[in-house]
Every structure is written in structure tokens, then in C-alpha cells.
Amino acid sequence: MRPLLFPLLCAGVACDASFPLGNIPVGDVVVESPEAPVCAAPPPGIDPCAIVSPTATCGGFTTITEALGTSGCGLIWIAPGSYDESTGEFFPLAVPAGVTLLGDEETLGASTIVSQLAPVADAAAVTVQLADDAVVGGLTLMSAAVTTQASVVLLAAAGPTLRNSTVRGVGSECDGSPTPCALGVRLTQASADVSLLGNRIEQTAGGVALEGTSLLEGNVIVDNGFGMRLGGDGFADLGGGRSAGGNVFSCNAYFDVLITGFTGTLSMSDNAWDHAPPSSAASPSCVEGATDICAPAGFAVVVARPTLLEDGCD
Fold first, then answer.
1. For residues 133 and 170, is the Cβ–Cβ distance under 8 A?
2. Which one of 125, 227, 277, 280 is at 20 to 30 Å from 248 when CA atoms are compared?
3. Could you write out the DSSP letters of every residue in 168-233?
4. Which residues pair with 248 in a beta bridge?
């Protein structure tokens, strides 16, 4: 085709050479060129050394897997979109020591969704695993794993932080007994100084299993088989220590909090419950669906200044 020469003729009259190049008139017909994709940019204050976008023409990486393999990059920003096996992700996504992986923290990752869609049968199936001092924030994290020992998020390290994220959907309903159970968030005996801040953990077989040492603040833990299980030797601060509390425990099918192995006194002050004060009982006398806190006989739990949820479950 011969190149178009100015001045153009549009319906028999001269065209303005400043006519937008994306809409070039040909006779009486305007031919529109494809619009360039809208490329999201990190919010103010976020200066990443790597950007992941599902749109290849936006530059950067197209998979989180590739970005995490970038040596020396400490801050990775994930643009809104869906990331799963069909887009090239390989699980588990292992966040290296000291690396921060961020999406949209304001919406708890509502538009930045990371999903392990394949029904993984591996007993240790994990969607995201954080190493020492790694941070994940502003992502929706999900799994379709069918194994009873799967975890959406594994925090078996020192100093990792999961913040302002949504964890959803793994396994079938679980009562929190010692039997292996699929979990939203799993901490192990190797976990130390773990921080769970401002997350929403919902619709999992078991919400959070805590071992090691941890701090929880401002989390919403609802609609799981059990909300939280505390076991092993360690310490959890859910309010009353360095944690300001502000956690919500509600509508978990079996128990909001099940304590199986922690020693000493557990502080769970300044949190919200389906009952105020939260109902409690000593195992094995706990009533599934009616007991908020189920603990061994003689275990001391401090629950100061509880808040009653107006729309809580009975």
C-alpha cells in the first residue's frame, strides 16, 4: 500500500493534518486503530524495582514467578489482574528473604488475585511461602488444593509479614482436631516473630494454625471450619501486648479459637466476637458451633474489653 500523503482528502475536502492518528478518515468512513492497553502504575510512595502485569505490552514481567527470580530486587509490585497456572505461574510462589511483594493493599487485593487452580494432591501443597523477613501485602490468595495438609500461605520462617490481604478457599470444612487439615495460613515450630496484620481470612477448611511466635492485629477471620488453632510451644499476641487487637472472630463453623498446646497465659484483648464476653469451655466439653474459645482445662486466657458483633452468629 502507498503511504498516505498530507493533505488528506476527507469526503472531498481537505483534512486537518492534526486529526487524531488513531482515527484516520478514509472517504466517508473513519477507521479506528486499536486502543493501546491501559497500563496500571504503582500508587504514590511505591517505587518497585520490578513490576508484574498480565499485559505483555505494559513492560516488566508477565508472571510473579519470573519476578521473584530477579536477583537483588527487594520490592515487586503486582498490577491488577489474575495470576494462575494458565497465565504461566508455577506454585508454590516462594518469596525470598527480605523481599516485599505488593498488590493493592487498600482493597485487600480485591483486583489482584493469585490462584492455585489445579486440584493439587501433594500433601504439602502451598500457594505462597514466605522466607525470613519477607512481606506480602494487597493480594487475594486462593487455592483449589484437595489434600488435607495444603496451605494457601506458609510462614515457616523468622520475621515474615502477611498484611492487608485476603486468603480464601482451600480444602473442606475442618474441626481443628489434631487430624491434618487444609489451612488458610499455617505457621510451624520454625515460625518466629510472624506478623499477621489487617488480613481477611475466610471460607477455608481451617483459618489459621499458629505455632512458634506471632502477633495478630486487625484481622477478620470468618466463615471457616475453625477460625484459629493454637498449638505447639510458642507465644501468640492477639491483643494486650504489642498487638492492639482489633481482630474479628465470627461465624466459624466449629470454634473461633481452639487451643491445643500453648503454655502460659494467652492474651486476646480488644477483639470482636459473636458473643461478649466470648463463650468458652474446657475441652472435651466444648460445643461445636456454640463455643467461641475452646481450651484445655486450666489454661488461662485473658479476654479484656471484648466487642459484640451486631450481626454475629448465634
1. no
2. 125
3. E--SS-----SS---EEEEE-TT-BSEEEES-EEESSSEEEEEEEEEEEES-EEESSSEEEEEEEE
4. 220, 272
Element (H, E) at 293: strand 293-296
How far apart, in whole angstroms, are the C-alpha atoms of residue 60 and residue 75? 13
Residues of the chain by 3-state class (helix, strand, coil), percent to 5: 5, 40, 60
Query: Distance between CA 292 and CA 227 in Å, rounded?
Result: 9
44-64 confidence digits (pLDDT tens): 989 999 999 988 888 789 999
Q: What is the pLDDT of residue 147?
A: 66
Closest to 100 (Cα-Cα) out of 188, 144, 164 = 164
**Vertex 282, ends 278 and 288: CA angle to 5°?**
65
Q: Report the alpha-carbon distance of residue 105 to residue 262 in Å, rounded.
A: 32
Backbone phi, psi, residue 159, to 5°: 80, 15
Q: What local confidence, expressed as pLDDT, does residue 174 receive?
A: 67
Whether the CA torsion 20, 26, 29, 35 is positive or negative: it is negative
pLDDT of residue 283: 83
Decide: 77 and 52 in contact? Cβ < 8 Å. yes
Which of 165, 166, 104, 100 is closest to 133 using CA atoms? 100
The total of other beta-carbon atoms located within 10 Å of residue 121's CB is: 10
- The CA-to-CA distance between both ends of the chain, in Å, stands at 74
Q: Which domains does the chain have, with CATH numbers?
A: 91-308 (2.160.20)
Instruction: Kindly state the helix (H) or strand (E) to which residue 67 belongs, with its residue range.
Output: helix 64-68
